[in-house]
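Bug report (template v2)

What were you trying to do?
Predict the complex of my protein with S-adenosylmethionine.

What happened?
Run completed; filing so the output is reviewed.

Input:
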Amino acid sequence: MSEWQLAKRHDSFYRLAKQEGYRARSSFKLKQINEKFGVIHKGFAVVDLGCAPGGWMQVAKEIVGETGTVIGIDLKQIKPIEGTVFIQGDMTSDETVKKVLDAISTSGRKIDTVISDMSPNISGAYSMDHVRSIDLCEHALNFARKVLRPGGSFTAKVFEGEHFPEYFNNVKMSFDFVKRYAPDASRSSSSEIYVIAKRFRPGAKIPKSALCEKE
Ligand SMILES: C[S@@+](CC[C@H](N)C(=O)[O-])C[C@H]1O[C@@H](n2cnc3c(N)ncnc32)[C@H](O)[C@@H]1O
């Protein structure tokens, strides 16, 4: 697809997002992921990592409905979304993780799915952006391992590159079903890809080398 066609496709998702009242074009990525893989259902408890400005939270809230819970976390503040919980902080810090764990225990819910659309600040140097993206994804995965109920699911955006296969194998250690997926709404030259993991297996033996250094 040419640059011009890509820009046009992105514009059409942007217009559609505006028309439908979503805060971000990325809302359609989550809709497409969910249509294909069913990671979120009515009544689910969802944690959304890197949620600003809130497009995924809007979609997640629509799907889970009144009986579900959505907790979003981001470095940046967001405008409140009715019926959801927002925590401002850095997901790579122990302090933020503790705040989120507290919010989960206050909600009295077991988490059914963790979704992460976290992106590093783009430097333009692809290999650096890739390494930073992998680092965020490792934190997201370790967090998911802490909070998911058995059988739960995990979705994360990754910038592809040399460390991707290692990350993919790391995800496979804890989930029975793991796929890579590029939703139409995201296909672009940026080579971002989503890892979709279902059927969480708690207690799998994870080698120390596959965990973040802080762990
Ligand atoms: C592409 S945006 C997410 C868009 C969002 N899914 C939506 O639909 O509105 C990526 C977000 O990841 C956040 N982010 C990056 N690193 C983070 C970190 N360490 N902790 C929390 N959020 C982070 C950024 O602040 C940014 O808002």
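What did the reviewer find?
Helices lie at 3-19, 27-37, 55-64, 94-107, 126-147, 164-172. The pocket of S-adenosylmethionine is lined by residues 23-24, 26-27, 50-56, 73-76, 90-92, 117-119, 136 (CB under 6 Å).
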